[in-house]
Amino acid sequence: MTTEPSVAPVPGTSSTPLPGTSSTPLPGTSSTPLPGTSSTPFPGTSGAPLLEARSLTVRFGKVTALDGLDLIAPPGEVLAILGPNGAGKTTFVRTVATLLRPASGELRVRGSDVVRDPVSVRRDIGLGGQFAAVEPMMTGRENLEMTARLFGHPRSAARRAVSSVIEQLGLEEVADRRCGTYSGGQRRRLDLGASLVGAPRLLLLDEPTTGIDPTGRREVWDAVRNLAAGGTDVALTTHYLDEADELADHVVVIDHGHAIAAGTLGDLKASVGRDVIEVTVADPSRLDAVGQILQRVTSNPPRLDRGGRHASAPASGGASELATAIRCLDDAAIGVDEIGVRRPTLDEVFLTLTGDQAGAPVPASHH
Ligand SMILES: Nc1ncnc2c1ncn2[C@@H]1O[C@H](COP(=O)(O)OP(=O)(O)O)[C@@H](O)[C@H]1O
Ligand SMILES: [Mg+2]
Fold first, then answer.
1. What is the pLDDT of residues 178-195, one digit of tens each?
2. Are 277 and 312 in contact (CB under 8 A)?
3. CB 86 within 8 A of CB 242
4. 88 CA distance to ligand 1 centroid (A)?
5. Does the 273-358 domain belong in CATH 3.30.70?
6. Domain residues of the chain, as ranges?
7. 90 lines ligand 1 (CB under 6 A)
8. pTM (two decimals)
């Protein structure tokens, strides 16, 4: 696991200037127009895309983590950036958060350029990482109030901001308990809370549910949906298709540092839209032979599941390819327990898009 930047940028621990540490009004607390809106080429921030990347390239020495990434995400929607491990998701989030500087290309956040106008970008965003700096001996409320004070809220304003965050996240029942006693989902919601005390317009979440149990995932999903319903834009990364399915209006699939598909998840499923032929063999030692037959019949690479004795392959030809496969298996004298055509699972959709079996550990639900 990489160590993500902690949830709330803490003044004094980072070399970058931070929101709210100077005399500037905190985001969301002022009724004056946002700084930076006039310098954007868009008619106003509200009309600007949430995120807009053009040929965005970010390097770590010789490693090109983002390689000419293009994406545009509409405002007012939850964006999911979906991709296998190493695709460049964290790099993208950190670049949006102005923690990394692009080697080339452009990136605008709500109309503000991350290189030319990083202060406006930071004022707009909250960053949630996987591991927040939370003090386990303090209660959730105390932790959030400490974060709010670090953001520059005076004590009474900090209390108010924290109460509202606790309510937004449904943490009332546990807020006054020590965090050391929290479940994974409660702890993760507290992480979200720490990134919300600055009232960001855009909340960035890097793999918000990785490593927590199914109950915790549901809690975090509910919290994210609440925030979005309350008007906070959310951009999250995930390598779980079901998470994108649950939360996102708009999905961008990235692989090897560039976007390979974008749209609603429905669009993506439709674009892949092929059925799958699946064979269960009686004798697992024949699985490779079955794979070769499926490859020949469908012209697609098969997936072999040795434990389950299954082989499958996407089939655009449906029933006629199924008939051919049955004939070939029969000719090869391969005993078959079951054979049929079914709809692709979400992870197969993802595999088809990324075309990379090794790089796609997607334990998405299969139904
Ligand atoms: N600090 C770093 N130094 C060198 N290479 C890095 C660093 N951070 C990420 N990378 C590389 O950049 C690529 C994208 O990584 P990352 O953005 O973490 O992907 P993801 O979050 O999708 O798993 C990977 O090849 C990774 O090894
Ligand atoms: Mg990552």
1. 999 999 889 888 988 888
2. yes
3. no
4. 6
5. yes
6. 51-269, 273-358
7. yes
8. 0.71
